[in-house]
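Annotators were shown the component list below and the corresponding predicted structure, then asked to write short factual statements about the assembly.
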Amino acid sequence: MPESSDGIPSRVTQLLASAGRGDRSATEELFPLVYEELRAIAERFLGKERPGQTLQPTALVHEAFLRLVGPSDRGWENRAHFFGAASQAIRRILTDRARGRARLKRGGSVRAISLQDAGDIAEPARDDELLALDEALTSLAQLDPQKARVVELRFFGGLSGEETAEAMGISASTVARDWKFARVWLHAKITGEGAP
Amino acid sequence: MNPERLRRVEELYFRMLELSAVERERALGSVCADDAGLAREVRVLLAHDTRVGGFLESPALGAGFAVSGATTPDELVGTVAGRYRLDARLASGGMGTVYRATRDGEFTQHVAIKVVKRGMDTDEILRRFRAERQTLAALSHPNIAGVIDGGALPDGRPYLVMEFVDGVPIDQYCDQHSLKIEERLAIFRVVCDAVGYAHQRLVVHRDLKPANILVTPAGIPKLLDFGIAKVLSNADVPHTTMTTVQERRLTPEYASPEQITGRPVTTAADVHSLGVILYELLSGTRPYHFETRTTSEIERVITESEPPLPSTAVARAPASPTNPADASRATVSPPPGLLRSTAPDHLRRSLRGDLDTIVMTAMRKDPQRRYPTVEQLAADIDRYLRDLPISARKDTLSYRVAKFVRRNTAATLVASVAVLALAAVVTTVFWQARIAARERDAAFDARDQAEAINAFLQEMLRSADPSRHAGDVSVRELLDETAGRISNELADRPLTQASIRNTLGATYLSLGLYDEAESHLRAAYQQRVSLLGEGHHDVAESKHDLAALLYAKGKYPEAETLLREAMEVFRTIRGDHNADTARVASSLGAVLRAQNRLDEAERFHRESLAARMKMGNPESPEVAESLNNLGGVLRQQGKLSEAEDAVRRSLEIRRHVLGEEHPLTAQGYANLAVMTYALGKADEAERMFRRAIEIEEKVLAPDHPELATTLHSLSFVLVNRKDYAGAIPLIERAVVAREQTLGASDPRSIQVRLFLASTLRLAGRFGESERVLGMAVEHARVDAVPQELRAKLDEELELLRRARTGSPLEGSK
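Structure shown to annotators:
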């Protein structure tokens, strides 16, 4: 059920169209809208932590796309920009969430795990890794923005290699190469063995 | 670290990957002789290369995020879903994963099971999954991989059990078996049937590509993956949400311009994809190549670039084997793996001409200019295979002659020629009038609209079952089907929609189906007025056609108003002597005559006739129409010989131009019969009425108003000759026909019923007469029945009463 206000869907569609024409400010304006929507959807899933139920990014993004852009057959151009914005938004949502939990833990006694954190027991390592990844990815973006975007789309956006190629407008083989290198580079960086 | 250095590291890293461990050290040592740090960085990465495992491979929101995580094995393989055991993972798409599964029992059955991915089970996706199941369940075709069963896993995720197709993609199959062109076409032809079947059920596949068309070892193609199919109708299929999300993005190589640009997608998109597939099957190369995969590049290529003809593409494909003798050998080579049993030169020659045309017609940018249906694409392939002229080919004389010469080497083709000939007859009978009108002035016809209309109509005609004849239900069914489809398929082209509605309305009118005619003509008129405004040519055309319907329904004043408005428009924009003004003048004459304003009517008919004669061809159907209508007025004015002359000339033209078996030729016979009867030549009149009926029984539906009129007329002649027994069955048919098309309360229906009653009375069958008359009186209890007709009914009641009591009055006894 779409619950966003009437104005938003058309605004997003407009922004996507502008972004498609290369309007950078449109891309920037797009992000918060997509972010809010994704966060709302993600909270429904992540917040409740139904056992055995995880939400995959493509499903999340599609749902957001539906809500924001509306049920249309709009192909390609719009979707590419949308996926870009959505992947970034998911990255932000996840790191914020991990950061929040990490802060919570640091604030209390190390041993005292509060009841409401019970569901998270298995996850501390994951939160740290996620934050480390976010940091490493930011470093990578400064050195090679294209590779960082590939990671964002593939890992946070859940796109396949081909889809990433389509969304970025580069060849699938370039994506494959960037992806391979970025994964190794990030792995080295995160596990702290003096990554280059 | 800076970007420059990272690039250097990357370059070395990939270079080292190709080498063995020993070689790596040697190479690194020499390349980084003066930069030990660089060598160290590359070494670190190489070390992580073996430890990276499945790091980041599962998306962030999925289950498997962990640095140490190796690729997780599929947790479903080996488990059981319902009665099936999942054996192996076949493929993984956006929303689901497909497994090969087995059902053990008395016999082992292999199936494919599609499961919604974990985490993908949002409401929307579940809805789509159900929609796919429903779509597939509605499709039962030997060449479509069907759905067998469905269910849910213990965790609630739904799954779909489908026919398991053990096959290879069609392009690979063709190449692996070195199929000849004809063999490729034969398989492709079967694919068309399957797609056409889906289209008839209003399902558009939208992602046709070789990977979705598998060919079994037995050579049977099967269509897969209706995952993003779209159901066109929303009347009877509740799951329109299917159209909303495309879980997987398109495969741009096979996508149509409208899919790329996000315009509405119809069956034409599948026709386009089939064209691309055929292009590839025949030439061994894809029509579209993208420099980069940017969306703008893809859009540019698909919507703008004109691919080379398949025959030209073959010419440009890398030369086949150096030794031409090898050309016939089964060689499997990567694209353009075009080495089949045909040598390149021969292949080029075979493709040039018809096959080029067929492929390029299917692939046209404008969906309206493609084959309107898959059936038509298939039909052209059939024609090609039989050396018949293809429909997409320009109909030049030399082309037809060339085809004829080739064709007649094979005697087996007689049957198909006969079929085509029959189809041509149907065409002539029903569409000539409209086509003639369409030809009137190219400058006033928006060309693409006319093409779209032609395409639509051709489609209807071509799928008409020629074994059933004109006026038959089959034509009507086609009209009804087309009518049902326009609002869906042409929703974005209201003007074209209006044109087709108008044509449909006119066709319903010519079939005597007034209610259907009225709804379409009125809709077309309103659509045009709102989009084009008064004063536009097409609006005037709509006014005229709507008036023609109102005339047929007996609503003369309303018809007259519309015609005078149309006349005004045509005079303003086109002047006095042109086809449109003349047509309206002729119709106006008819409406005035129906209101008994004979002098005015005569003036308009003469005006129309003069204009039409002046426009060139004095033997046109339009001239015949004017002569016919003028004759009618003259007869009523008592100028009998002049009238007979006009009608006779009209009939001659019609016989000559339209042929003997045409509704208008029949009308000519009937009208001439009326004239000759008025001149006292009863026998000649009867003969001509019978001839008219003979033709009308062949070319019109049994309840057609024209036929009813002729039956009424002939029976009138018979009654006057006191041949009551001959007349009564004819009048009874006329009553049935009138009441079916006009309703029992229409004055014209009551008139015929009254005539039947009095004839029965004259024949001495008083009881029947009373019953028929009683019903007429009953039907006449509505306001629309004029007073004088009611008076006639009363009079007939009185006559019947007297005839029964034996009171002498008139010549009964």
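Statements collected:
1. Chain B touches chain A through 66 residues (CB under 8 Å).
2. The radius of gyration of chain B is 36 Å.
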